[in-house]
From TrEMBL:
One of its GO terms (molecular function) is ubiquitin-like modifier activating enzyme activity. GO terms for biological process: cyclic threonylcarbamoyladenosine biosynthetic process. Residues 11-256 form the THIF-type NAD/FAD binding fold domain. This is Dinucleotide-utilizing enzyme possibly involved in molybdopterin or thiamin biosynthesis. CDD domains: YgdL_like. It comes from the Bacteria. It comes from Desulfoscipio gibsoniae DSM 7213. The lineage of its organism: Bacteria, Bacillati, Bacillota, Clostridia, Eubacteriales. It holds the Pfam family ThiF. InterPro entries: ThiF/MoeB/HesA, ThiF_NAD_FAD-bd, Ubiquitin-activating_enz.
């Protein structure tokens, strides 16, 4: 009998579908990476999602974020994403928090939620480190996205332990942050081995620079993938690939398939 996950069932069987339907995954951050992760998880048959993002859809999101359309500009990302994913699967259980994750909210957002996996696509490095630490201390599976901005090569993404990463400036900063708070676990991350491209100066991008806060502070130059005076460059086919890889990794681990190497 035909159903919305019939083609997926051909790969993982009815038992696999049942297993995914019983799983709950949290996605922190619904930007160019996280929006694709959330939708891929929903389309793969994950039965319950917890979506966290404090932001509203901006016109500059349209080039790379799934929820961003002309008629969704100004709306909360969590609201738009929830409505979209319920069109994918009306039976999907979705909880949302229109709020920025901070260290003080770790217990509130992680405890008593029966989470099977946590996906981190947060930009702010302090909050990112706090979320990872919260998961590690709770023995909660987590995967984290490193930098996808200022990149043009979608084939350069890899999955590995945060401690085995190279090239990525954000990964370097995160290693330092995690080490400082005593986190030494082999946290899996999706990172790019492509060297960041410096954003072009002769564009109108500076007009939206006040909407962006550099994630790593002034010690990291723009050429390394973080734009100090404005937003990082982005293109549709790079952060989306990172998001899909994250969804694939999570789904693989939930099913116990071990298609991906153990990190």
């Amino acid at each position: 009998m035909s159903h919305r996950f019939a083609r997926t069932e051909l790969l993982i069987g009815s038992t696999g579908l049942e297993k995914l339907a019983a799983c709950k995954v949290a996605v922190f951050g619904l930007g160019g990476v996280g929006s694709f992760t959330a939708e891929a998880l929903a389309r793969s048959g994950v039965g319950s999602l917890f979506l966290v993002d404090h932001d509203t859809v901006d016109i500059t999101n349209i080039n790379r974020q799934l929820h961003a359309l002309s008629d969704t500009v100004g709306l909360p990302k969590t609201q738009v994403m929830k409505e979209r994913l319920l069109q994918v699967n009306p039976a999907l259980q979705i909880q949302t928090r229109q709020q920025k994750f901070t260290p003080e909210l770790t217990a509130d957002m992680l405890d008593n939620r029966d989470l099977d996996f946590v996906v981190d696509t947060i930009d702010d490095v302090d909050n990112k480190a706090a979320l990872i630490a919260g998961c590690v201390k709770r023995n909660m599976p987590v995967i984290s996205a490193m930098g996808a901005g200022n990149k043009l090569d979608p084939t350069s993404f890899k999955i590995d332990s945060i401690w085995k990463t190279s090239v990525c400036p954000l990964a370097r900063v995160m290693r330092k942050k995690l080490r400082a708070i005593g986190i030494t676990a082999d946290v899996p991350v999706v990172y790019s081995t492509a060297r960041p491209i410096s954003p072009l100066a002769d564009t109108n991008a500076h007009t939206v620079s006040t909407r962006y806060t550099p994630a790593t502070g002034s010690s990291v130059p723009a050429a390394h993938g973080f734009c100090i005076s404005g937003p990082p460059g982005s293109i549709a086919y790079v952060p989306s690939v990172a998001g899909l890889i994250m969804a694939a990794f999570v789904t693989d681990k939930l099913l116990g398939l071990d298609v991906f190497p153990v990190v």
